[in-house]
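Researcher: Re-running this chain for the archive, since the previous output was lost when a drive failed. Same request as before.
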Amino acid sequence: MAVDTSQPLRHPEVVALGRSLMERRHEVVEGMVGRIRAEIEFYRSGAVDVEDLRASCDRNFEMILWPLINATPVDLRPPRETGRRRARQRAPLSEVMAAYRVGFRFVWETLVSAAQQRGTTSSEALVAAASALWISHDEYTDAMAAAYRETLTADLRHDERERTAMVEALLDGSTSGAASIWEVAELLRLPVGPAYVVVAAEVPDLAREALPGVEARLVAKDIPSAWQLRPEMQVGIACLKSAAKLDVLVEVLRESSTGRIGVSPQYPAVEQTPTAVRLLALAGSRPGAVTVFDSAPLSVTVASATEVMPRVAVAVLGSLLELRPDDRDTLLDTLEAWRDNEASATAAAALLLCHPNTVRHRLRRIETLTGRSLSDPLAVAELCLALEAVRLRPELLSS
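Model: Regenerated structure tokens:
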């Protein structure tokens, strides 16, 4: 968008002032560089090279004076170029905008000083010059900021795509050779650690994060990680720097999602990630729970036999599955409470808010309906497998 500077350009004193500054271009540019570095700490940090800043100030100085001297529209390419370059340098936008403000103010102060030295510049001319400069300031800053944001957004998307591809390479083992695997891990900021785990979390909706902000929350707990969002799950690799970090990881995961979350066995080398993926315990976890492979062998075993377990459940539970849904669910809940409370009818009754004799009566019904005795360890194991199968596959109850 061109700056409307038609009014200042009609004033010959404005043109003369602008040309006088152009004759001192090198001096003024050096002054701009010095002022920006003096007032803005970021530009003294080395993040932006002095020569880079000088070149930017030189281009922008010509652009600032353009509406004072010329009748043609101003070229907004210099501020756009600056915005793109600073975005790629990851310079904070607020600091870049501050540099523009300082640079424009320096040019204005230099212009006023030049007018005072000339002694013949009218107040009308200074007002016209100020009008042109500050209108330009707004236009130039907007152009720079827009280019900055566009570039930063595009670069971040590109970086995220690359990061996602690198996580995928580790998960499926598509990297070639141990050196490249460790190189990928380093790029993902996964340090060499005593142990790693793979985590999978069921997403609430298609391609929607199951664990929003999980990487930052884990970093705060000194657990580096890298994540990939897939259509049906969010998968990550976490580095555990000590044995105690597994409990910390599980706690963060539990606080982060209401869906199913599974954690693989721990493994010592990052190149073993594909094997850990195959042992992932997600399929063995329940909604709202975190299932760790090594601590849930029953769930993992059931989940691993996806084709067999439905048949096992039907064969073991038999006519129990044919009861009315409320009656069936009551018996299954009772069996689960009894199993989870060391086969104690009293403890199960306390959990179910009923009398222990009620629990015993229901257990006898389960024995009758399934033809399996709860005093037989083998029969109990079969019932527990079948129970786990219907918990993990609720659709079996409606089939």
